[in-house]
Amino acid sequence: MKRAFLCWGTVLILSVSWSCRADAADAFVFEVAVPKFKISIPGMPQIRMELHPLNASQPHLRFLGSAEPYTVAVFTPVAAAGMTPFECASAITRVMAARPDMPPASEVFKTRLNETTFVALYAATLGGAVQLHAHLLSAAGGSHCIEVHASKVALLEDDLASWIDELEKASIEPN
């Protein structure tokens, strides 16, 4: 499994420079008003997002949505004043390492997608399938870190390549 992630990471880096841009109609796009930012994941279908069911007691848990085989959750934890996207990405990946069911850090591929977006990728076995996970990380409003946890259930090996294609142009844009 560890070797697959190293290959996966290499494919992601190489495919960033070789891919074509997805049509805007074939993109998951979601805008948040406070703090103001926009999430775009070309190639992933639009998913209806609703208020996270635990938002009342944990306000950083903001939105949740799913449309098989995808699930998306948006979190906006409060950050120290002026934290950059890189600082937020670093802080979130440190916290992620302590979460239940997270693979060891050596099995999580992390990279920068653009000036404001970082990603942490890993997979977990799920019965006869694999659940692919991507945590898009950034900052917004000088007051919040952003974590968008997207996952996809994959049944075929070819699903891995399409998942990478969907993620390579993903972004979190502070507005």
Structural topology:
Layout: H1 2-18, E1 27-32, E2 37-42, E3 50-51, E4 61-67, E5 70-75, H2 85-96, E6 109-112, E7 118-126, E8 129-140, E9 144-154, H3 158-168, E10 171-174
Antiparallel strand pairs: 1-2, 2-10, 3-4, 4-5, 5-9, 6-7, 7-8, 8-9
CATH class: Alpha Beta
- Compute the gyration radius: what is it? 15 Å
Q: Largest beta sheet, briefly? A: 7 strands, antiparallel
Which class of secondary structure composition applies to the elements? Answer: alpha+beta
Spans where pLDDT lies below 50 across 5 or more residues: 1-23
Approximate strand percentage: 35-45%
Give a short synopsis of this structure.
This protein has 175 residues and is an alpha+beta fold. It has one domain: Protein Transport Mog1p, Chain A (3-Layer(aba) Sandwich).
Descriptive notes:
- Helix 1 packs across helix 3.
- It contains 3 helices and 10 strands, in the order H-E-E-E-E-E-H-E-E-E-E-H-E.
- The relative contact order is 0.22.
- Strands 3-4-5-9-8-7-6 form a 7-stranded antiparallel β-sheet. Strands 1-2-10 form a 3-stranded antiparallel β-sheet.
- It is an alpha+beta fold and about 180 residues long.
- Helices cover about 25% and strands about 40% of the residues.
- It has one domain: Protein Transport Mog1p, Chain A.
Which keywords apply here?
disordered N terminus, 7-stranded antiparallel beta sheet, 175 residues, Protein Transport Mog1p, Chain A, globular, 38% strand
